[in-house]
Amino acid sequence: MGLFECGDLDESHVSDHDKPIREKLLAYPWMKVLLRGGVNGESDFKMAPQRRLAYDADFNLKAINHTKEHGNRSAAREFNINESMVCKWRKQEHDLRLAKKMKKSFHGNKVRWPQLENRLDHWISKQRAVGRSFSTVIVWIKAKVMANEMDINDFKSGPSWCFHFMKQWQLSIRTRMMVSQQLPVDYEEKLTYFWSYCESKISEKNIQPDHIINMDKVPLALICR
Fold it and tell me: What is residue 14's predicted lDDT score, i.e. its pLDDT?
């Protein structure tokens, strides 16, 4: 029997004279793969499926900028990607610059009304900036109003369209857990009056500093002076 049997890594059948040679050959990783697959090419050995990676728009634009200065191959080596991906991203440069930085792909159907969706996303951002809450119903009703204003007659919005729109723009409905109490308009005047009242009582009662303790749960921020 030889040093190897087809698809066999067991050394029980190898003579003592051939064992050192066998160990040296097995030090090479490709030899183990060859043995697992069979020296005659008859094998059920399968490579592990390679996981596909998704890159966001910000990463794509960095690769494109590098390409303009150093070329496609240099960008592929620098960012550890395939050169064909760089070529594809260069064709999509205009859309990538308009997309959000964290957007990862352009898979799926193209947006039929991009201007409408851009305007709606801007409106949602403004509502959130002032602390207003809204639901999906409000979103697709607002979309209908904007479509009428923009003379888009074939626009049909509904729960399904709203779901895909929010997924496309990476939006979510946030639940307001609590609403903090707003300070009154004249809070500075009241704070000054409260501090003067405390000073007058301290002087009237002749209260020493070591007799003053922390006042808990006072809704005003006092600056000791």
Answer: 56
Q: Please compute Rg for the chain using Cα positions.
A: 35
Report phi then psi at 19, rounded to 5: -60, -45
**Closest to 93 (Cα-Cα) out of 53, 118, 55, 61:** 61
Q: Which amino acid is at 208?
A: Q
Burial, 158: exposed, middle or buried (Cβ in 10 Å; 0-12, 13-18, 19+)? Answer: exposed
Distance CA 187, CA 185 (A): 6
CA distance 103 to 58: 8
Flag whether the pTM goes above 0.70.
Answer: no
**Could you read off the pLDDT of 92-115 as tens digits, one per residue?**
888 788 777 776 666 556 678 888
At a CB cut-off of 8 Å and minimum separation 6, what does 194 contact? 220, 222
Do the beta carbons of residue 140 and residue 174 sit within 8 Å? no
Residue 83, token pair as written in the block: 């050169």
